[in-house]
Design a protein that fits this description.
The structure is a single chain. This protein is mainly α. It has a domain at 2-48. It has two helices and no strands. It has helices at 2-23, 28-50. α1 runs antiparallel to α2. The longest helix is centred in the middle third of the chain and has 23 residues, at 28-50.
């Protein structure tokens, strides 16, 4: 949990501020795309760096290492 409060929350706040400043001059529809792209990148990075949270039940389709067969090789597991 310390990782979340000490690193991730301030980093997300800074990233949101930078995104708002950079997207200010874009058209409205392009602002939404920029914000959603940054949000998607943060979510992918979070799950790639933290993995599945402890205590989350396994659906049974994963192997003994708890990595699903469709998981891409370029993302760390």
């Amino acid at each position: 949990m310390n990782f979340l409060f000490l690193v991730l929350v301030p980093a997300c706040m800074a990233l949101a501020a930078v995104t708002c400043v950079l997207a200010r001059r874009l058209p409205l529809w392009l602002r939404a795309i920029a914000v959603l792209a940054v949000l998607a990148a943060v979510v992918v990075w979070f799950f790639a760096s933290r993995g599945t949270l402890d205590g989350y039940p396994s659906p049974g389709i994963c192997g003994p290492d708890n990595v699903p067969p469709w998981w891409p090789d370029w993302l760390p597991a």
